[in-house]
């Protein structure tokens, strides 16, 4: 198997395998925290830090962690880093901590983090895993920032809390609510599909084989599905 | 058996390392977090009772107050009380701080935490300033956020009742 270059690993998560818009992972925080740009950006950076640290740690320990115990081990590592990030945000960015609320803790069960641990970090070198964490984190942050910009500017006539006076009378408040979030999310997925001419969501590169539950749901079927697509 | 013990040891080692990381971070951040929380509470206290200078937290465990009241602060110069109330809004709980002076008049009310549909619940409390228990019902309910605004009114009413009870206790 041809080894990927460091640059391609880093860039992979930004468009080609964007976790939010292509892999459709981390949907819950993507919808919940994108009502404001600063909240979405903060969430993206918090997830980036956790992804970076957990990918490095899991990659370092990939030969030590027993196959049967890998999910509990990953969860302990990820939950640990999420709690560290939470404490740091609470201490140094209290307003962001209040904005993100429970979604900061929920990074622990974010599919992107566990997905990359299972799909990438436990099979690749520390350097590549760190780059994958950064790339995926940047992809997540960009997707969230883009979604939140559309929702905040058009829905609340403001950008990062700064009001846009000439848009005050043209607000589409629906966009700041959950259905508006889903609509923007769907449109962005369609846009990415259009821009990449349908090449981005190649199922073989991230299909069921990367799923944390692949072992219990039948690996053979998953692999078959990946090959056929 | 040997395999199980090995697996267990690896897991325990990972947990231990993460615990060390967490303990170190907690050691560094705990004093800053505590300082932030005190500053945030003091800011809210001053906001709902602008004339207040120093506040003392009262022990309410022995008082039979409404279950929605979680904290009570007394202005040390006898200017009134600030009550912290947790009430159910439309979605999540709303945490409201309400200042009441010795004449049973609201000096300020502010929502310090919520996730409500009203969106402007943080400024809605301004409508209660200089109102007493009789005037509270005259404060307009906002269409489209009736549950949130009614919960706000109930919280302010609870605060007024609490202050009456506290003054009775003081006597």
Number of strands of chain B: 5
Whole-number total of structural domains of chain B:
1
Give the helix tally of chain B: 3
Number of domains of chain A: 2
Overview in brief:
The complex is a heterodimer of chains A (229) and B (171). Chain A contains 12 helices and 2 strands.
Report on the architecture of this protein.
The complex is a heterodimer of chains A (229) and B (171). Chain A has 229 residues and is mostly helical. Chain A folds into 2 domains: 6-165 and 173-198, no CATH class; 202-229, no CATH class. Chain A is built from 12 helices and 2 strands; from the N terminus they run ααααααααββαααα. Chain A has helices at residues 6-12, 27-32, 37-60, 70-92, 94-100, 102-105, 111-121, 126-156, 178-195, 203-206, 214-217, 219-228, and strands at residues 158-159, 162-163. Residues 225-229 of chain A have low confidence and may be disordered. A 5-stranded antiparallel beta sheet of chain B has the order 1-2-3-4-5, sandwiched between helices. Chain B has one domain. Chain B has helices at 2-48, 121-124, 146-170; strands at 55-58, 69-75, 80-88, 93-101, 106-113.
């Amino acid at each position: 198997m041809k080894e990927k270059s460091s640059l391609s690993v880093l860039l992979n998560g930004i468009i080609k395998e964007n976790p939010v818009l292509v892999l459709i992972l981390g949907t819950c925080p993507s919808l919940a925290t994108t009502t404001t740009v600063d909240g979405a950006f903060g969430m993206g950076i918090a997830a980036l830090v956790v992804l970076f640290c957990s990918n490095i740690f899991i990659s370092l320990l990939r030969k030590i962690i027993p196959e049967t115990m890998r999910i509990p081990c990953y969860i302990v590592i990820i939950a640990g880093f999420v709690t560290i990030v939470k404490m740091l945000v609470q201490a140094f960015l209290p307003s962001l901590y209040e904005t993100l609320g429970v979604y900061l803790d929920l990074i622990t069960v974010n599919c992107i983090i566990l997905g990359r641990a299972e799909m990438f970090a436990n099979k690749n070198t520390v350097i590549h895993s760190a780059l994958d964490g950064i790339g995926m984190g940047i992809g997540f942050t960009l997707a969230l920032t883009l979604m939140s910009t559309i929702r905040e500017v058009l829905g609340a006539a403001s950008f990062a809390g700064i009001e846009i006076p000439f848009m005050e009378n043209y607000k589409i408040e629906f966009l700041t609510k959950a259905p508006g979030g889903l609509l923007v999310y769907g449109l962005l997925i369609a846009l990415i599909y259009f821009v990449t001419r349908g090449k981005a969501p190649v199922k073989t590169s991230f299909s069921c084989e990367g799923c944390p539950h692949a072992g219990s749901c039948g690996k053979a079927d998953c692999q078959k599905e990946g090959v056929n697509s | 058996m040997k395999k199980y013990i090995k697996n267990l040891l690896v897991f325990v080692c990972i947990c231990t390392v993460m615990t060390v990381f967490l303990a170190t971070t907690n050691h560094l951040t705990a004093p800053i977090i505590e300082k932030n929380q005190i500053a945030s509470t003091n800011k809210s206290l001053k906001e709902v009772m602008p004339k207040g200078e120093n506040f003392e937290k009262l022990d309410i465990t022995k008082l039979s107050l409404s279950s929605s009241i979680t904290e009570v602060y007394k202005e040390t110069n006898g200017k009134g009380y600030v009550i912290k109330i947790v009430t159910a809004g439309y979605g999540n709980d709303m945490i409201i701080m309400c200042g009441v002076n010795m004449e049973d008049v609201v000096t300020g009310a502010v929502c310090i935490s919520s996730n409500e549909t009203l969106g402007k619940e943080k400024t809605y409390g301004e409508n209660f300033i200089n109102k007493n228990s009789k005037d509270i019902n005259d404060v307009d309910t906002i269409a489209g956020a009736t549950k949130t605004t009614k919960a706000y009114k109930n919280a302010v009413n609870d605060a007024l009742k609490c202050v009456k009870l506290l003054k009775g206790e003081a006597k």
